[in-house]
Specification:
The protein has 238 residues and is α+β, with helices and mostly antiparallel strands. It has four helices and 16 strands. Helices cover 18% and strands 49% of the residues.
Amino acid sequence: MAGLIAWHELFTEDVTGAVPFYSELLGLELETADMGDFQYTMLKKGEHTEAGFVPKPPDTPESTPNHWYPYIHVDDVDATIEKAKTLGAEAYMGPMDPMENLRIAVLGDPQRATFGILSSPGAQPSTIVNWNELHATDVDAAASFYGDLVGWTKEPFMEGYFALNAGETAAGGLMQERSGSPVAYWLPYFSVEDVDAAVAWVMEHGGGSIVPPETMEGVGRFAVLSDPGGAAFGVHQP
């Protein structure tokens, strides 16, 4: 399980609006855990929770957008934090133990893409998100960072696009950031039964379209959207 993505989180100023948006779009149930300072709402598929919503603290810089980020499973959160710092990353939160047998931290990689790390004997690969894509301001540097930190290897997939592999398993994709963002970012692709229907639903409920639906041989049909708070995400139909 080490090196695979096991959780996702939305950092947003509007948890109240984001929770029903995503649960209705994806047809998922909800579960809530008391975190002391706030109620942590999670998306649930079957018996497993797979993603959560974190409210932006009041002191968050205005330039920080609402955004999704993945959690990579590691064997030792504390050791990974220290290694990440030596590689140029910054610790944003943690380490902390939000519940029994779960240790987490949230970091920013050297190109300021947010990502989390977690260690838990009960961790499982995500199923509601079927692909994770890193849009890097420097592709080679990003591959080197995650390779040194969690052992991912870079493999060409198509022109200008690479797979990031954890052993024999693809953990995510890597491409050059093309929108003009000064920082890198992670983009999750949620699994849906019908991309076109999902896009129409998002547009009817206050979201936006970034990349309209398209079909790619060997990949499936996909689109990139934004929720009403501006957080980018993809939808994918194998």
